[in-house]
Fold this sequence. Notes:
alpha+beta, Transferase(Phosphotransferase), domain 1, 2 domains, Kinase-like_dom_sf, Mn2+dependent serine/threonine protein kinase
Amino acid sequence: MFDFLNIKKESYSSKIKFYYLNDIDLNLVNEMIDILVYNKKIENYDKQLLKKRENNNEVIKLKNNKTYYVKTYHPFRKKKLIKNLFRPTEAVRHLTKTKMLKNRSIPIFDPICAVTIKKSFFSYKSIFITEAIPGITLDFFLKNHFDYNIYKKNKIFIKLADIWNKLIKNDFMHKDPNTPNFIINKDENFNISLIDVDNIYKWPILPLKLQAKSLSDFIYLTLYSLKEEHRNLFNIKDFLEYSLINHKSKYQKKIIEYINVELINVIDENNTYFLRKHNYYINELFEF
């Protein structure tokens, strides 16, 4: 499933390895390992813990002359520990996945490296380090900055549809297509990028139902992020037409049928008032 071609491996110590794609600043990597693994204080580095989950996985922001984001992974469940004996660690898998997405021209952050730390025979901790992308999350943008003219708003949704078109065409399933997992740069081009690969999976062939599930989740979550007065500007029909542009018409129709079912299920499960009130979003799909 994963493409390991051209991923390079170096040793920091007997128990610590790091993996990277292209030429790398070894001094930068060594400093980051010192900070993240050994908690050393290094001049001109600012370390900020952004999130810590119950399983001790962390999201960290590192700054020197640039900004970096770090995710740490501490698998503790027996099933996952055993699985990881026969596959790369989470960070290395995410590095590989990022490479696959970049090779298919899907906009995403630049990875720095993946680090693995051997804790015992069965246990590894891993760290994934990426360079920050300038901009704000799509969720924040839709809620607070969506005050552009119609042309610019259409441009934003075309950019989003282009990402989904490439994901689907290349058999990637996004299992968490929430708007905080995208970042938008508010320049004239409104460049949009993925900023989280944890829940993106590569399939040999992505089934139509899973394509529909991913798209319907994104439509629902995007509408939820938009203010009520802006929801009618999200033209679902145009968005799907562009997202599915590489599909034959019979497959497009089938996916649309699945999406209708998925959206109606979401409405029923969440008793979502705003989608009941704006059910023309759903009705227009039946006329696709």
